[in-house]
Amino acid sequence: MALPQQQLSLADYLAWENEQDERHEYYRGEVFAMVGVKRIHGLVTGNVLFALRQQLKGKSGQVFGPSLKVQIGEDMVFYPDVFVTCDAADLRTDYLFRAPTVIVEVLSESTRGYDYDTKFAAYRRLPALREYLLVDPENRRVDLFRRGENGLFTLYDYTGAEDFPLEAIACRLSLAEIFDGIEAIPGGD
């Protein structure tokens, strides 16, 4: 996460952000520029997006990528790497989503702690959220947090599994499709 650029109200941030060429997240009055992602991050994000889009055809939910915003309360707006919403109001909006069912974050060295801690604490405030998936391409780690009937999230570690369910949207992801193409790309940073 980058250093804060300026402090704005939510309304001012939204008006300002919709005019920007680059993306900025909003966290309790502070605005943070989103840094570029590495090739592998983009590849994994695209793989998850494509797999979910294929499985959601003909269903009520829709999958969206990293260029769309999710609002949490009146004090946070994030750009998840991938999210699925089944909410009628979300399916009619163009810019700001408030009720995702599933959120996926693809981790990088610089965002790993932030995605596990700060973002997850914020996302848990979303009543519609049922599953939060964290994919770490560097370590081939896949952690899924699923909200139980008691409202609490339970961790399911699917690292090394062949595939796993996203129960909230009746989909399955395989590790082969998530990490597809990574082995064929020679080293680099």
Automatic annotation (TrEMBL):
Keyword Lipid biosynthesis attributed: no
Pfam families for this protein: Uma2 (PF05685)
Keywords: Endonuclease, Hydrolase, Nuclease
Occurrences of domain Putative restriction endonuclease (ranges): 11-166
UniProt feature coiled coil, ranges: none
GO molecular function (one): endonuclease activity
Gene3D superfamilies xrefs: tt1808, chain A (3.90.1570.10)
Protein name: Uma2 family endonuclease
Provenance organism: Pseudothauera lacus
